[in-house]
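Exercise 3.2. Students should predict the tertiary structure of the chain below and write it as structure tokens, then compare their answer with the key that follows.

Predict this chain's 3D structure.
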Amino acid sequence: MKKVLIMCTGNSCRSIIGEALVNAKLEGVEAKSAGVKPAGKVNPNAKRVLEENGIWDNNYHSKHLDEVINDDFNLVATVCDHAKETCPIFPKPVPKIHIGFEDPDGKDYEEFQKTYKEIEEKLLPEIKNFFIVFTP
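Answer key:
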């Protein structure tokens, strides 16, 4: 099983959606998510979009990077510019990719649906391709 960490600033919208999408749609890949400055809660609209798409899991929660930094990840994917810029050095070397998405927090529910679709269409193929190209 390959492991990927999806990182953003607040770990309440984009990274949670990314975590759920990877876990639901990429066979052989397990995702976790974290934030560099976590909100401490999942945005209700992020939870709603995941529930409506049948991929919400009650284990998803907003957490600080410190909770997962010692896990063995094969890849770190940052989904916001702030997380990319502040991404720490991990205890073990780990490849990183960045695909930024606009933060839907504070916007209408339609923006969460749009973010879900963008993450599904842009991030998932990049993660899949990474594991095809860069791992034996």
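Discussion points: The chain has a mean pLDDT of 92. The radius of gyration is 13 Å.
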